Amino acid sequence: MIRNPLDILAKYFGYSAFREGQQRVIDQVLQGDDTLCVMPTGGGKSVCYQVPALAMEGTVLVISPLISLMKDQVDALHQLGIPAAYVNSTLSTEEYFGTMDLALAGQYKLLYVAPERLDSESFLNQLQRMDIPLIAIDEAHCISQWGHDFRPSYRNIHRILDYLNTRPIILALTATATPEVQDDICQQLHIPPSSRVVTGFERSNLVFSVVKGQNRDQFVKDYTIKNKNESGIIYAATRKAVEQVHAMLEKNGISVAKYHAGLSDHERQRQQDRFIMEDARVMVATNAFGMGIDKSNIRYVIHYQMPKNMESYYQEAGRAGRDGLNSDCYLLFSSQDVLTQRFLIEQSPDPSRIPNEIKKMQVMVDYCHTEGCLQKHIITYFGEDDAENCKRCGNCTDTREQFDVTLETQKVLSCVIRMGQRFGKTMVAQVLTGSKNKKVLEFNFDKLTTYGLLKERSAKDVADFIEFLISENYLQVENGTFPIIFVPEQGKEVLLGKQKVWRKGEMVTTVVAKDDPLFNELRALRLKLAQEAGVPPFVIFSDKTLRDMVAKMPVTDEELLTVQGVGETKLARYGEAFLEIIQSFSAQQA
Ligand code: ADP
C-alpha cells in the first residue's frame, strides 16, 4: 500500500502536484484533524478525500446529497482502478445487500451514501461493523439553515458518530459558503475554526460577462452556432422560457436537450443522459438541473435570465470549466427579470424567508449593473475583501466604443410622457416605429408628434433600446397587472438637456475554445470508447488531458504518463488507442 499522498496522486490520478489547498487538507486529515474545506467548484475537492482513502486502512464514507453524482463519481473511480460503490434509492434490494456485503468485507476504499440513509437504524448498525477512518461530507452547506440549499437530513449526520466504535475524522467540503454559513457548519460538526481551509473563491479560468439591453435570442443563437462543437448549459428562469429557447435552438440545427420540473422523471433522466453522454451539446434548463452534474468539459454557461441570488449564480455558472480550461459565463440581463424573480420568491412556502431572499436578489441586481470587475464583485460577496481585478471579465476587458444616443433617448422619453406613462415598452416601441396596430390607432397615438419618430428602425430594435434605458435608469418600470414604464428624475435631466446618454456597441459573441484537428480526433476516439464502456466521455479523459496530449504529442507509454490526468490504470486501458491516433496524425503531417 502506498502511503505518500503525492505518489498516490501520480499513480492513480496522473497528476504531478497538488493544487492550492489540497495538500493542506490532506495533511490535516492524515494527522487526524477534523477539517472544513471551502474550495470553488472545479478546485479539486474530491481528491481531498479520495487520496486519503487510498492512504488509510478501511473504507471512507462519503455523504453526498446528489444521487446522479454518486454514480458518476463511482464510475470515475473505477476508471482510475479504485474500488468504490454507492448506496442510494436507485439500487434494488438485491443490489443494496450485495453492495453492503462487500462493504462489510472491506472491499471498497470509498462508499458513497445519501444522507437520508443515515436515518435508518439498520444501516447505522451495519456501519458499526465497518472500519471507517474518515467521513467526507460533500456539499456541506446543506447542513446550514442559512445556506441556500438546506437539507434537514444533514442534521442527523452527527448521529453516526455516536454509533461508531472508533470516532472517524470528519472532513466537510463545500464550494459555496459565506463566512456565516462556514461558521454554522463548523459549529454543528464541532470543527475547530483553526482547521478551516478556505482557498480563494476565484475561478481563474472563467470569464464572466453581463450582457444588457441586447436581443437575448440573437445572442444565444450566435453563440451556440459559433461554439457548436462545445458543451454548454443555458439556464432560464421558467419552464416556458426553457421551452422557447430550446425550440429556437433546435430550429437552428443545434443539438440540444432540455430539463425542467414539468417533464416526467423518465424524460428528465433521458435528457440529462443525452447531455452527459454528449449526444446533445447544449442543455437548456431551469435551476432544477445541475446539482450532481460533474461533467468537466462544460465550456460555457449562459444565464438567459438573471438568477435569484449570487449563491445560485456562482454555483450554476461555476459548472463551466471544471477541467480548468478557459470557459465563458454570460448573464443576459433584462429589467423584466427582476419582476420574474420577485414573483418566484413570493411563491415561497415559507413567508418568513421572503425578506432575506429579496435582499439577496438585490445583490444579484447590483452585480448586473456594476461597471467594476465581475469576478471581484462575486468573491467579495463571498467574504474575500482583498480581491484584485481579474483582468479577464467582460467589464475588465471592455473596449467597446461609446456612442452618444442622447437624441434618440429624448425621442423615446418624450414619447413615453406623451403616451401618459401608462404603457409598457412594446406599445411605446410600436408608437415610435409608426405601427398601425389596432391598439395604437384606438388610443389615437398616431396623432402624437412622437409617432413614427424612429420609423427607420424595427419595433424589436427600439424595444431593446428601451430595455437599455431601463437598465441604465433613464426609464423605470412600475409593476401592476402589466409592467408600465415611466420617466424618473434621471430621465428628466436628459429631456432638459442637462445630461448626455452614452451607449456602448453590442457585445459580440466569441469562440471559447480553439479548433484543433488532432484534438477533434482524440475527442472522437474518447466518445467511441465512452460509448463502448457505457460511461460519460469526460470520465475516460478530461478535455484538459486531451489538450495536454496535443501539446506534448507523446509517442511512448512513459511520455503518455507525463500527460496531466493519465495514471497507470488509464494508461493500461486506453494508452494504446490514443497513442495510435497521435502517431497516425503525426505521420499525416510529416
Ligand atoms: P470539485 O469537486 O472541487 O468541483 P473536482 O474534484 O471535480 O472538483 O476536480 C475538478 C477537476 O480537477 C477534475 O477533473 C480533477 O481530476 C482535476 N484535478 C483535481 N486535482 C488536481 C490536481 N492536483 N492537478 C490537476 N488536476 C486536478
What is the topology?
Blueprint: H1 5-13, H2 22-31, E1 35-38, H3 45-55, E2 60-63, H4 67-79, E3 84-87, H5 93-104, E4 110-113, H6 121-128, E5 134-137, H7 157-163, E6 169-174, H8 179-189, E7 196-198, E8 206-212, H9 216-226, E9 231-235, H10 239-251, E10 256-259, H11 265-276, E11 282-285, E12 298-303, H12 310-317, E13 327-333, H13 336-346, H14 354-369, H15 374-381, E14 402-404, H16 406-418, H17 425-432, H18 438-442, H19 459-471, E15 476-479, E16 483-486, H20 489-495, E17 502-504, H21 517-533, H22 537-540, H23 543-552, H24 557-561, H25 568-589
Parallel strand pairs: 1-6, 1-7, 2-4, 2-5, 3-4, 5-6, 8-13, 9-11, 9-12, 10-11, 12-13
Antiparallel strand pairs: 14-17, 15-16
The structure holds adenosine-5'-diphosphate (ADP).
Adenosine-5'-diphosphate (ADP) binds at residues 15, 18-19, 22, 39, 41-47, 294, 296, 322-323, 542, 564.
Summarize the structure.
45% of the residues lie in helices and 13% in strands.
How does this model look, in words?
- With 590 residues, the protein is α/β, with parallel strands linked by helices.
- Helix content is 45%, strand content 13%.
- The protein folds into 4 domains: 5-198, Rossmann fold (3-Layer(aba) Sandwich); 206-381, P-loop containing nucleotide triphosphate hydrolases (Rossmann fold), CATH 3.40.50; 402-504, Winged helix-like DNA-binding domain superfamily/Winged helix DNA-binding domain (Arc Repressor Mutant, subunit A, Orthogonal Bundle); 517-589, DNA polymerase, domain 1 (Orthogonal Bundle), CATH 1.10.150.80.
- It contains 25 helices and 17 strands.
- The strands form 4 sheets. The chain has a 7-stranded parallel β-sheet, sandwiched between helices. A 6-stranded parallel β-sheet has the order 8-13-12-9-11-10. A two-stranded antiparallel sheet has the order 14-17.
- The chain starts with a helix and ends with a helix.
- Bound molecules: adenosine-5'-diphosphate.
